[in-house]
Amino acid sequence: MAKAGDKNEAFVTEITPRSEDFSRWYTDVIRRAELADYSPVKGCMVIRPYGYAIWELIQQGLDRRIKATGHVNAYFPLLIPQGLLLKEADHVEGFAPQVAWVTKGGDEVLEEPLLVRPTSEAIIGTMYAKWIQSWRDLPVLINQWANIVRWEKVTRLFLRTTEFLWQEGHTAHETAEEAEAETLTILRLYKEFCETELAMPVLEGRKSESEKFAGADRTYSIEALMGDGRALQAGTSHNLGQNFARAFDIQFQARDKSLQYIWGTSWGVTTRLIGGIIMTHGDDSGLVFPPRVAPYQVVIVPIPRGDWRETVLPHARQIAADLRARDVRVFLDDRDAYTPGWKFAEWEMRGVPLRLEIGPKDIEKGQALLVRRDIREKIAAPREDLPGRIVDLLAAIQQNLFERALRFRADHTTEVSSYEELKQVLEGRPGFVVAPWCGSAECEASIKAETQATIRNLPLEDTAGGTCVRCGRPGIARAYFAKAY
Amino acid sequence: MAKAGDKNEAFVTEITPRSEDFSRWYTDVIRRAELADYSPVKGCMVIRPYGYAIWELIQQGLDRRIKATGHVNAYFPLLIPQGLLLKEADHVEGFAPQVAWVTKGGDEVLEEPLLVRPTSEAIIGTMYAKWIQSWRDLPVLINQWANIVRWEKVTRLFLRTTEFLWQEGHTAHETAEEAEAETLTILRLYKEFCETELAMPVLEGRKSESEKFAGADRTYSIEALMGDGRALQAGTSHNLGQNFARAFDIQFQARDKSLQYIWGTSWGVTTRLIGGIIMTHGDDSGLVFPPRVAPYQVVIVPIPRGDWRETVLPHARQIAADLRARDVRVFLDDRDAYTPGWKFAEWEMRGVPLRLEIGPKDIEKGQALLVRRDIREKIAAPREDLPGRIVDLLAAIQQNLFERALRFRADHTTEVSSYEELKQVLEGRPGFVVAPWCGSAECEASIKAETQATIRNLPLEDTAGGTCVRCGRPGIARAYFAKAY
Fold first, then answer.
1. Residue of A237 and A107 predicted with greater confidence
2. Contact yes or no for B83/B114 (Cβ under 8 A)
3. Is the peptide bond before B139 cis (omega within 30 degrees of 0)?
4. Residue A399 belongs to some domain of the structure
5. Which strand (E) or helix (H) includes residue B218?
6. How far is B73 from chain A (nearest CA, A)?
7. Residues of B in contact with A99 (CB under 8 A)
8. How many domains does chain B have?
């Protein structure tokens, strides 16, 4: 039954330990666990079924929240005429270098080249100009699930790829206040989603001027902290003010009959969230998935003793059926070609939150053995109400992963008051470094050049104070600095 | 409260009656009901929220069935290197004229142009060659939900657009028999889905050689009949044999240790199904949606008498809440700016299966008035167990729409034995014309040139017989001819 020296067995042990080389560990574990693969197209990845299942769970959890806040889904064209991009000056400057251009259709060379969408403000703004006439048509609250192409020079699986998947919300409002409220509603929705579903704590805050979206008045972000102490921008929410409304002529007749420009927002999260999950929770043995987004929450490994297919397997099948009836995602690994030991290592590497072992002795004792992925605890659980126990354990694992990540962040967040201190902390695996900042782009740029750290964001409820860590002028905010993905 | 002469009121009455001009009715109703809109991109449409909601319901119903038959979802790149398309000769011949080409990324002119995927056999085949090593890896049963671009000369909303949405399954098998079984499993799955969810009867059958997919051994299709007597190809399932396996070198070590090519299939349905729903069920007043794919299954119109916001509206809200608790999709139209009469016409046009009217008198009598969209029957229903009654009525409407469409198809299917008869029937709104065919591409092409009718498909369980309606040689099949979209 053992397949010693098997190619697959070698695969499992081949992962670079996380503690040794975080970056190689990340790539190794994604490929070995078959979450994704490189494709023959430069910078584009294939999301394999085990990875795509996570995206489907993210979509479900997020789509439910987006709809519960009054938004509806729609679909806009992938290809956008060049002329539309050119209408908003900051927008074209920000995105033109990253655009993939369609210049030919069939045999015909196009008079006007088409962009493969790098984001959809231009095409959606054009349609909104057509659809919105009166204040009665507002607000327009539309979201889209779509693929995006941005010509990237350096790519990394899930985190930065030439094509990626995302959702993008685009809304139009009657007043500036409503647009700001929407921008913050979504920011909080993203935060709650990441923390509840992905067990990934995030900092919500406002981006500095130099880091804001091309064409926005204000950009807010949520920032997570990865296991190597680098930050990951996990989602953004933009208050577009009237910039796109003016560029695309999105006007409406106001209550007082005057003609007004709408106030816009846009916001999105992408498949990079999958990278965030991996880098927040993984360990030397591989992936650790929070139960709520785990493709399989429980793997059942029957112990093959004697005529186990007649004695053990029916029990394993019954447990799997009972769990499915409780909406638990379960995989029963009854493959003959692999040993239990191989399966344990394999499913540990693949991050399944809970392993259930059952053999002849367990059946005699009326129990099953449960092994938690997060803390490796082994629990002999009575067969009676096993599904209830498992549902509770999954909730406990979800909670523990979140708390562990919160503690990690607390342990890797340092308040500093001098530039020397800031530079010192930023060596190694620093996490967030919090320091007063004067608000000038110059200081921000110098710090970036000298330490590679960027301002991730400025907390929403902030008490300005202290003096800028770089120039000594009065601070306008306590900025969160970090090296980032 | 009335808004006579209102722009929107005019809109509702502006639809060309279906009986007068089917084609204009189709476009009118899509745009007035805000299912979709033209975009500034040639041949591309915007799917608006009311239309996209139908696609989401189609996705849910189909995704559930695809997964229940053992398939998993994944995602492959949008952009495909030109070299990959060229590997399968028939495939390139079939698709090259329809390709949108990316030739530039940022400022860089690409050495090798990239196709925007017109279908994904080439990129998926390339990955399968990498992933599949042994018979133990088989079958591979992967589906993808994606956008597709095909450069079309003549486009029509939902039915033929330069970009469309679809699902595409791509599977790899150990034997020819398994691939054929998979192809037919999916064909039956599509048929069951269309008939159960869309209330749209379809004919399953095999395509003629000249109509098969570029690169397939055999193509099967399901064909629906639209209200104007034209056929719509609603889905296809292809047995690819070993063609793509040879082109992309997808080999595996067989049980006998020999190296073998896999046997492949691919299959898909698209957003054109939405066009099929519209043209199967609609009438002079507009859309008629089968309840299972209706964005709203029930619209509640409170009758505004007296202080209705205090007296009627709470009842309407309670009914809406009760219906939602039963998973009924309901819209409570409590807008002040429109009269009940306007709302009745509007929601009729928008195809909502059931209207619920409630006013002070209904409340006195302890009832609500229900109006069926399909047969316009009015039912005074007691408040007691209203949700149960409504759930039953929705099922009855679904069933009635299917049976009505079946009768329509039976009334518009004609067996003919002479070419004169075939030509005669094919004038006007003929539906399917069934006639023996000798199997030659020449006869097929002549019939098409002379009547505009194509062979839609050849029934699966067919008894050959008779003589070819065109040439008089022995028939190999009873072919279903129709003018088609």
1. A237
2. no
3. yes
4. no
5. strand B218-225
6. 6
7. 105-106
8. 3
Residues B166 and B276 in one domain: yes
Residues A13-56 pLDDT 10s:
578 999 999 999 999 999 999 999 999 998 999 999 999 999 99
Q: How many CB pairs under 8 A join A and B?
A: 158
Q: Residue B394: what pLDDT?
A: 98
Partner residue opposite A49 with nearest CB, options B74, B105, B146: B74
User: Which neighbouring-strand residues pair with B459?
Assistant: B205
The full DSSP string for B114-181 is EEEPS-SHHHHHHHHHHH--BGGGPPEEEEEEEEEE---SS-BTTTB-SEEEEEEEEEEESSHHHHHH
The pTM (predicted TM-score) of the whole model is: 0.95
What are A172's two structure tokens? 């139009």
Can you name the residues that pair with B156 across neighbouring β-strands?
A: B160
Contact with chain A for residue B335, Cβ under 8 A:
no
**In the predicted structure, residue A10 carries a pLDDT above the cut 50:** no
Q: Count CB-CB contacts under 10 A for residue A111.
A: 6
Q: Are residues B390 and B425 in the same domain?
A: no
The Cα–Cα gap between B363 and B315 comes to: 8
Question: Is residue A59, in this structure, part of any structural domain at all?
Answer: yes
Query: What pLDDT was estimated at residue B10?
Result: 40
- Please tell me if residue B148 touches chain A, with a CB cutoff of 8 Å: no
- Tell me: pLDDT of A11 over 50: no
- Inter-residue contact A437 to A469 (CB < 8 Å): yes
Per-residue pLDDT of A189-212, as tens digits, reads: 999 999 999 999 999 999 999 999
Same domain for B391 and B426, yes or no, is no
Question: Using the beta-carbon criterion (under 8 Å), do B147 and A147 form an inter-chain contact?
Answer: yes
Is B331 inside any structural domain?
yes
Residue among B45, B163, B81, B104 at smallest CA distance from A102: B104
Considering the domain architecture, whether residues A178 and A212 belong to the same structural domain is answered as yes
Q: Are residues A443 and A307 in the same domain?
A: no
Positions in chain B whose pLDDT score sits under 70? 1-13, 462-463
Give mean pLDDT, residues A254-273: 98
Per-residue pLDDT tens for A362-379? 999 999 999 999 999 999
For chain B, give the percent of residues with pLDDT over 70: 97
Instruction: Give CA angle at B433 (B431, B436), nearest 5°.
Output: 165
Distance from C-alpha of A233 to C-alpha of A269, rounded to nearest angstrom:
9
Alpha helix ranges (H) inside A326-385: 340-349, 360-365
Q: Is pLDDT above 90 for A452?
A: yes
- Structure confidence at residue A88 (pLDDT): 81
Terminal CA-CA length for chain A: 44
Full residue range of the structural domain in which residue A253 is found: 13-281
Contact check, Cβ <8 Å, A136/B337: yes
End-to-end distance of chain B based on CA atoms, in angstroms?
44
Q: Which member of A56, A105, A127 has the closest CB to residue B39?
A: A127
Residue B79 resides in a domain: yes
**pLDDT for the residue numbered A120:** 96
Task: Provide the CATH number for the domain around residue B472.
Answer: 3.30.110.30
B67 plus B208 within the same structural domain: yes
